[in-house]
Amino acid sequence: MSPKPMPTATDGILKVRDLSVSYGKVEALHHVNIDVTVGQIVTVIGPNGAGKTTMLASIIGLLPHQTGEIMFFGETPVKIEVERMVALGMSLVPENRELFGEMSVEDNLLLGAFMRHRLGYRDERETMTHIYRIFPRLKERQKQKAATLSGGERQMLAVGRALMAKPRLLLLDEPSLGLAPLIVREIFHIIADLKKSGVSMLLVEQNACAALQVADYAYVLETGEVAMEGSAAELADDPRVIESYLGLGGDVCL
Amino acid sequence: MDMQIALLLGQDGITNGAIYALLALALVLVFAVTRVIFIPQGEFVTLGALTLANLQAGKTPGTIWLLLGAGAAIAVIDCTISLRTGTIRRIPRILLWSVAYPCGTALLLFLVNPAELPMLAQVVLSLMLIMPLGPMIYRLAFQPVAEASVLVLLIVSVAVHLTLVGLGLLFFGAEGSRTLAFSDATFKFGSILMSGQTVLVLASSALLIAALFWFFERTLYGKALRATAINRTGARLMGISTVMAGRLSFLLAAMIGALSGILIAPIATIYYDTGFLIGLKGFVGAIVGGLASYPVAAAGALLVGLLEAYSSFWASAFKEVLVFTLIIPVLMWRSLTTHHVEQDE
Ligand SMILES: Nc1ncnc2c1ncn2[C@@H]1O[C@H](COP(=O)(O)OP(=O)(O)OP(=O)(O)O)[C@@H](O)[C@H]1O
Ligand SMILES: [Mg+2]
Fold it and tell me: Alpha helix locations (H) across A91-135?
């Protein structure tokens, strides 16, 4: 089987239009519009419960009930299904990681390439070598069960597993959650490197300072609505953002 | 009971136990991947045995009507869905599996005289008739309610079981059948005499278990099934669709069931409803492993086989009762030793 050609990139890799999501009667997202262009890192910051995780889950198709339009690489699926989005080149590193606990690190990584394998690509071993170069820690622990990894290692595995799919758009839900400052810096280095290698990213973060440094464009999500948006540099200088998300002075940034 | 009889009974018990072990593995697999307690597992044993018996008798097995009917139903449903959602590119693939394959198999049955085929070809033909029924049943009965609770899935499972038993009676009639022996050789291990059939059952079961082990440990699709069982959401995020995993596990379950039926058909008379009882014994084994552990389930099933063999000697009238009573201490032990985790459903 020869690999199916991926659709070529247009400028807008992801367009989210009027996205509303409710859990029962409670509306978690209200007419959200988000754009990601090729090769960009777009970050979404906002307080707890703003709907950031909900937004990522509904973009990739994990939530059944939503209204609005999601256009990915010029395709607007009638029914957004996770498998379809993954096949089109989208990967999500979910907030709670969703690793395969009883399986080895290596098997977790291998499964990250499942859809690529189905589509006819047979380069999972090379990709894995590449991932091990990015995360040497994972190589040391390749036979260890995912459930026994430390928090930081789990995070690395979740990111590595998503990268095994060679995504063209990577959705990251708080990759720095619960990590020591040194590792946070490491993770953001990796994010910057990924951008250089051409991966577009939609990055959800609590660590607004680091996110705004690495991102090109930013949105502030508050109670399910986009409250502000602008280039990352602009938002980093905005007094409202400094007050609510960067802390006074804005000089302490990991 | 002297040594000779004890050995003979042991041999019997292990032979049956091996079959129960295969079924127990299938039950654990289906439950882990789809949360379905697969009551109709035993019906595949019946289908396997009686389809082969029909082929050997030169009759057209009713299984083909089931295959054609289920295929037609799926074709109608899936093509309608495709037309409605505008995914017309899926239609050729749907028609291939739900219409072309059953019709091709029917044509094959019509063209050859199955009674004249070599035994191995008859077995392959039986499997060709039965295995696709697994994914078809998943598509028709379980896929529409895949996200329902375990209880709802169990109710659907019982309904499918009753339907299949009824169809079994319709297709095969009330009388039982046996198939021809695969081999009339006998083997002598020390003082134990083993029939070639027994050796074949044991060897095939061992081989099948090894093959399953290899599939789950070494192949990407095997790992994908395990991943779905461990973390559904995680698996979906890798592009492993729940539907694909469900169909694959039902395909394996159908294969295991049909092969089990084919293996025991020469040593036991199978009636249209015999499979259910055999499946239930596999279920007792699977329960010993908490419907979760493959090795414990297999060991439990072997234990069931041995218990059945020895109780048929001591108290033959109560042998079924004894086997099924085993489930009570097992459940008590399990509920005392495992923490009950509230499932969030
Ligand atoms: N399954 C659910 N059922 C009901 N309400 C939910 C569900 N999931 C999320 N919510 C609610 O939707 C709102 C948005 O949640 P979400 O997880 O998207 O927030 P978030 O921005 O990711 O927050 P955090 O920064 O704490 O991760 C919250 O009020 C939450 O309680
Ligand atoms: Mg969140």
Answer: 105-112, 114-118, 124-134
